């Protein structure tokens, strides 16, 4: 990914060039080191303190972590988060791949279909959450009124502990399937023409061709889509905030929501930081294990 | 031929599914209170009523809209400009610690924003910036690592000879950047700007935490607090959502061609 700078630029004047470089970098250094990296260090430190609003921070060592491991609310919310991720990631990935295969064909008006499918990605999640809450409204909502036309008595989607999570996850899939389709589309169009058309010669069925040739060649795209979606859905907050507020009960109380609740409603900054560290660790492990899994199976050039 | 009809049928169904919530939002936003219960969600209310919008704008919604537009513009401008400067340094200049520093930038891509929320809030508190415009904008406006990464990759693809020629003619680094590099980088600039506008316009958690006074409220926070403040007044809720959704939708329709092409660029090569 990183190549050495061409030697000759170095000769032009090392010291001056470094000064220019750091001047250009200065704002982003403040941003990246000060507002991204430093907070990670601070959150680690805070997780070792007992600190509620107005009280003086008190160093408590690993006491917050001890509390964490026996706190059933935390484990429940972690489980709920994983449940959300497990619905959203495969749902979004498979749907976006199918859409990409569909819009990869050369047909009239295809670019308009592509554009329409991407629109939900831009929607403000909070606004979208409200729109979908209304669609899911058991009495006057569009979904149940629509089902009513066929004589079906629709359930109370968002106030049922069983249906609330799949409903909220469905909104995530609806929002991001079209967007991720674009990555798969780019991946498909990068496949050499000779490989795309080989199947018609060797007589393999389109399905067999997809699984033996297309899918393996899409691995780099697959890795990108999976990783960005896993990271994204572990952090779900906005739509859940307006659709269910973590409820009913605690059935949609994802980790982000719990952190927000502990920190900015109960003002327990120390413990909220501890939960943040846990979430960060989980996201990191999930990301790295995907890299390792794919690394073992593909060799490709990541560099540009 | 049968296959083509099948493809079109699925595509039309998919697109309808993608945009029907927008239709329902528009229809509902323009219904009066009575029409809401008298009509089906997919039927228009006749004659259209703008009562919901009037109610919203009387309760300060216009201010949220202006705030959101200005904050989005400000943060986006900062992000794009500072990312260009940083990306150019990484792509073209050699300086001690460059590669290590670039890896540090890249590694912060894995930091979930929610993890940084509490420390950022406390930092802003220390700086006395809670519930200020500066506190709202400062943490994200100095350049995002993702934008820097995308721009650096693109800048490296521009032949260095073009710049060398200009530099031999006596142009400085900044002049070369402005007159040679940026004009060649339009596609990636569209990409980076689009991603920034969408993210900043839609941003919710940080504004929710850092601002509390109504004169600094953003649209996303305004409509989220709706439910509590005006109850289940679906006309107003849909009208408010429409106000939040419409600007990006218009932007998308105008720049649709560029956006669809440019988003795909951001995937790994």
TrEMBL record, chain A:
Q: Which domain of life is it from?
A: Bacteria
The membrane topology term of the UniProt record is: Multi-pass membrane protein
Q: Which UniProt keywords apply?
A: Cell membrane, Membrane, Transmembrane, Transmembrane helix, Transport
Q: What is its main location?
A: membrane
| SUPFAM superfamilies, per database record | MetI-like
**Cellular compartment(s):** Cell membrane
Transferase among keywords:
no
Residues spanning the membrane: 21-49, 82-103, 115-135, 163-186, 207-227, 269-294
| Domain ABC transmembrane type-1 stretches | 78-290
Pfam families recorded for this chain? Answer: BPD_transp_1
Asked if the record carries the keyword NAD, the reply is no
Q: Which PROSITE patterns match?
A: ABC_TM1
Looking up PANTHER family in the UniProt record yields:
ABC TRANSPORTER PERMEASE PROTEIN, INNER MEMBRANE ABC TRANSPORTER PERMEASE PROTEIN YCJO
**Which family does the similarity line name?**
Belongs to the binding-protein-dependent transport system permease family.
Q: What protein name applies here? A: Carbohydrate ABC transporter membrane protein 1 (CUT1 family)
Q: Whose protein is this, by species?
A: Kribbella pratensis
TrEMBL record, chain B:
Q: What start and end residues bound the annotated signal peptide?
A: none
Transmembrane intervals: 7-30, 64-90, 102-124, 136-155, 176-199, 234-255
Tell me one Pfam family matched here: BPD_transp_1
Q: Kindly indicate whether the keyword rRNA-binding belongs to this entry.
A: no
InterPro entries named among the record's database cross-references: MetI-like, MetI-like_sf
Q: Give the top-rank taxon of the lineage listed in the UniProt record for this protein.
A: Bacteria
Name the membrane topology term.
Multi-pass membrane protein
Q: Which UniProt keyword terms apply here?
A: Cell membrane, Membrane, Transmembrane, Transmembrane helix, Transport
PROSITE patterns membership: ABC_TM1, PROKAR_LIPOPROTEIN
Protein location: Cell membrane
- Keyword field contains Cell membrane: yes
| ABC transmembrane type-1 domain segment(s) | 65-255
Q: Which family does it belong to?
A: Belongs to the binding-protein-dependent transport system permease family.
Q: What is this protein called?
A: Carbohydrate ABC transporter membrane protein 2 (CUT1 family)
Species name for this entry?
Kribbella pratensis
Q: Supply the source organism's classification.
A: Bacteria, Bacillati, Actinomycetota, Actinomycetes, Propionibacteriales
């Amino acid at each position: 990914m990183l190549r050495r700078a061409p030697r000759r630029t170095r000769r032009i004047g090392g010291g001056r060039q470094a000064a220019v470089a750091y001047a250009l970098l200065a704002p982003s250094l403040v941003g990246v080191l000060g507002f991204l990296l430093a907070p990670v260090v601070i959150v680690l430190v805070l997780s070792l303190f007992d600190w509620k609003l107005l009280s003086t921070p008190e160093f408590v060592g690993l006491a917050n972590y001890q509390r964490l491991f026996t706190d059933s609310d935390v484990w429940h919310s972690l489980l709920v988060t994983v449940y959300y991720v497990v619905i959203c990631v495969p749902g979004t990935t498979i749907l976006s791949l199918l859409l990409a295969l569909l819009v990869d064909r050369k047909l009239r008006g295809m670019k308009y279909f592509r554009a329409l499918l991407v629109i939900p990605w831009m929607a403000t999640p909070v606004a979208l959450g409200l729109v979908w809450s209304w669609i899911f409204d058991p009495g006057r909502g569009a979904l149940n009124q629509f089902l009513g036309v066929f004589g079906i008595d629709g359930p109370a989607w968002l106030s049922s502990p069983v249906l609330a999570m799949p409903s909220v996850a469905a909104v995530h899939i609806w929002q991001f399937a079209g967007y991720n389709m674009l990555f798969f589309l780019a991946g498909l169009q990068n496949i050499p023409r000779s490989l795309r058309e080989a199947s018609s010669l060797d007589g393999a069925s389109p399905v067999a061709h997809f699984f033996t040739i297309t899918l393996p060649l899409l691995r780099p795209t697959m890795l990108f889509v999976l990783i960005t979606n896993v990271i994204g859905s572990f952090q779900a907050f906005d739509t859940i905030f307006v659709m269910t507020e973590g409820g009913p009960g605690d059935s949609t109380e994802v980790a982000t929501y719990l952190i927000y609740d502990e920190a900015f409603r109960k003002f327990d900054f120390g413990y909220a930081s501890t939960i943040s560290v846990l979430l960060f660790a989980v996201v990191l492990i999930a990301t790295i294990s995907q890299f390792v899994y794919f690394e073992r199976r593909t060799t490709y050039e990541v560099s540009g | 031929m049968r296959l083509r009809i099948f493809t079109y049928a699925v595509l039309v169904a998919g697109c309808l599914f993608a945009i029907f919530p927008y239709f329902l939002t528009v229809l509902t936003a323009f219904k009066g209170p009575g029409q809401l219960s008298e009509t089906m969600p997919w039927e228009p209310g006749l004659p259209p009523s703008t009562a919901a919008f009037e109610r919203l704008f009387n309760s300060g919604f216009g201010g949220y809209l202006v705030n959101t537009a200005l904050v989005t513009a400000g943060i986006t401008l900062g992000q794009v400009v500072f990312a260009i400067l940083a990306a150019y340094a990484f792509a073209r200049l050699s300086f001690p610690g460059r590669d290590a520093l670039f890896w540090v930038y890249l590694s912060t891509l894995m930091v979930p924003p929610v993890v940084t929320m509490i420390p950022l809030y406390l930092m802003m508190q220390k700086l006395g910036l809670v519930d200020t415009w500066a506190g709202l904008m400062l943490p994200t406006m100095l350049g995002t690592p993702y934008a820097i990464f995308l721009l650096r990759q693109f800048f490296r693809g521009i032949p260095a000879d073009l710049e060398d020629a200009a530099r031999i003619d006596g142009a400085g680094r900044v002049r070369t950047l402005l007159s040679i590099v940026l004009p060649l980088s339009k596609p990636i600039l569209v990409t980076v700007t689009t991603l920034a506008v969408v993210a900043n316009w839609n941003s919710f958690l940080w504004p929710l935490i850092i601002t509390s006074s109504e004169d600094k409220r953003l649209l996303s926070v305004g409509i989220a607090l709706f439910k509590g403040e005006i109850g289940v007044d679906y006309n107003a809720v849909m009208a408010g959502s429409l106000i939040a959704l419409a600007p990006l939708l218009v932007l998308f329709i105008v720049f649709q061609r560029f956006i669809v092409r440019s988003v795909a660029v951001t995937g790994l090569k």
